Design the sequence.
């Protein structure tokens, strides 16, 4: 049995830990052979396939990024996608694929699976927005990085008695903003799921100054004012139709300055949240996902996604995750409102 592995979409800490555990268990327990498809679905379209063995995965457990490369290629935006992917797999005698990705990459996997490609999915993303799994790996690392940044911003904000706005990733979902904001003791947390009232934000900011503390406002990049729209970095779309976000932090700081007459600054954390070594939790989760994904291949249980449910790893139909983003529950957000202002 020969198994192909690919990593698609935005990278995240823990991808290498999955690759390592898939290859280690697959070779040691099941006698499988492995190859890697380079740069996500691009490698599947272009036949860019590299050997993958135990020596190629040695030492990669703590390394961020992905040794296989990644891209946001959507094969269905290219001609003859299904045939080209099937041809690549046939040319390299690949019997099954392990696809490690977020909602876009997994959506492609679900489609290909329905068209007869043998594959198993593994959910990843720092955004934690893949439905069907309690957590994705990469998220814990990103939250840790954002929390440390907020801790640091508190002290400089207080020295100057000014507002510090922290913009974190999260296009459709506010998981990073909420977890890091709560862990870092933010005074305002803004998430895409809950359009915000700028007057209310400014009231919270003023309140904070009144008790001689400097406000920290954490905003997900996809947060939107009630009257207004998402702020885009530019209008170019990727192959999955996503625009590039960023700008809400800067907009908030300007509005806060104008409306409250106090000083405000912005820090955009950006890709720092996606880079570098994975946390212990992400290594643990990624390793378990890898072990269970290779078991699913061994069982011939294709068209499935491995997922964390409580402390157990389960298999769910890949199809179920398609086009559904796991959003922050409004009641969870409401739990923390007591800390705002
Ligand atoms: O999909 C994960 C994510 O981190 C989003 O939160 C963010 O909008 C996006 O990636 C940015 O990705 P890239 O820099 O690859 O376009």
Sequence:
């Amino acid at each position: 049995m020969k198994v192909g592995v690919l990593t698609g979409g935005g990278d995240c800490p823990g991808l290498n830990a999955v690759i390592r555990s898939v290859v280690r268990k697959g070779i040691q327990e099941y006698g499988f052979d492995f190859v890697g498809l380079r740069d996500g679905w691009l490698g599947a379209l272009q036949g860019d396939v590299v050997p993958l063995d135990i020596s190629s995965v040695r030492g990669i457990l703590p390394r961020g990024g992905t040794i296989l490369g990644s891209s946001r290629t959507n094969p269905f935006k290219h001609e003859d996608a299904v045939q080209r992917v099937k041809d690549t797999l046939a040319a390299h005698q690949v019997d099954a694929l392990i696809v490690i990705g977020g909602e876009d990459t997994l959506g492609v996997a679900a489609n290909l699976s329905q068209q007869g490609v043998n594959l198993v999915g593994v959910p990843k993303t720092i955004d934690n927005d893949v439905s069907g799994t309690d957590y994705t790996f990469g998220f814990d690392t990103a939250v840790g990085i954002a929390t440390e940044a907020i801790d640091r911003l508190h002290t400089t904000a207080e020295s100057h008695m000014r507002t510090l706005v922290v913009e974190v990733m999260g296009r459709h979902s506010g998981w990073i903003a909420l977890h890091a904001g709560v862990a870092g003791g933010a005074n305002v947390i803004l998430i895409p799921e809950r359009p915000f009232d700028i007057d209310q934000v400014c009231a919270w900011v003023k309140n904070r100054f009144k008790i001689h503390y400097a406000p920290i406002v954490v905003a997900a990049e996809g947060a939107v004012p009630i009257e207004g729209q998402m702020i885009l970095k530019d209008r170019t779309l990727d192959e999955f139709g996503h625009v590039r976000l960023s700008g809400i932090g800067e907009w908030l700081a300007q509005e806060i300055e104008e409306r409250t007459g106090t000083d405000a600054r912005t820090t955009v954390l950006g890709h720092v949240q996606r880079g570098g070594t994975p946390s212990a939790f992400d290594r643990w989760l990624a390793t378990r996902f890898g072990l269970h994904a290779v078991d699913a291949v061994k069982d011939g249980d294709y068209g499935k996604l491995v997922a964390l449910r409580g402390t157990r790893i389960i298999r769910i139909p890949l199809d179920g995750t398609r086009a559904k983003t796991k959003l922050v529950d409004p009641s969870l957000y409401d739990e923390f409102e007591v800390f705002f202002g």
